[in-house]
What does this fold into?
Amino acid sequence: MEGRGALSEIEEAVVPTGHAPELEREIERVLITEREIQDKLRELGEQITRDYRGRELLLVGVLKGAFVLMADLSRYIHLPVETDFMAVASYGAATKTSGVVRILKDLDHDVEGQDILLVEDIVDSGLTLNYLLKNLRGRRPASLEVCALLKKTGIQRVHLDVRYVGFEIPPEFVVGYGLDFAEKFRNLPYIATLRPEAYGDV
Ligand code: PRP
It folds into this structure.
C-alpha cells in the first residue's frame, strides 16, 4: 500500500493499474480495461485496413478527446494514411452536452475527393458528430465514415450511422483514454467512472 495514498485494498482491486495513484483515487470503477481497448483497436484496425485497401484514407481526429485513440488506432491501420485534426468544443456544463459546437481548429487542407474516416472518442448525444458530419459533407469528400471508441446506448438525439464502434456503454459519465473531467484523467489508459466525490474536488 506504500505510495498509494489512501487507497484501501478493496479500492485497489477495483482500480488495479497504479497508473497515476492521485488520479485513480477518484476512480469508482473500470468499465473497459487497457487490454480490452487495445484488443478492440487491433480488430478495428484490421477491418479498416481491409475496407480501405487501395484507397487514400485521411484520418480526422476530433480534439481534444480523440488524441489518444488517433495515436493508437492509426498504428493498427496498415495503410499509408494521412492524418489531420479538428478541435471542437461544446458550450455548457462539464458533464452535459449543450448541442452547440464551436470549431476551434479546422482541417489544414482541402478534403474534396478524399476518403475521410472521422475518429471520435465518444458519441454521447451525437450532436457533435452530427454537426461535424454535416460540415464535412459540405466539403465533398469521396466518402465519409466514423470510427468511435465508445457509443452510449440509447441516448442519441439524432440518428447517426457510425460504421466502426469499439464499445457500447451505459449512459454514465466516463473518463480516461482521452476523455476528461475538468481536463484531467485523459492520460489513463482505460475507461472508468468517477466516484461521486470526485466531481467536487478535482
Ligand atoms: C466530447 C467528446 C465528443 C463529444 C461527444 O467532447 O470528445 O467530441 O463530447 O458528445 P455529444 O455526442 O453529446 O456531442 P468535449 O466537448 O467534452 O471536448 P473534448 O474532446 O475537448 O474534451
In short: Helices lie at 9-14, 21-24, 34-52, 67-76, 127-137, 198-201. The longest strand covers residues 143-152. The chain has one domain: 2-195.
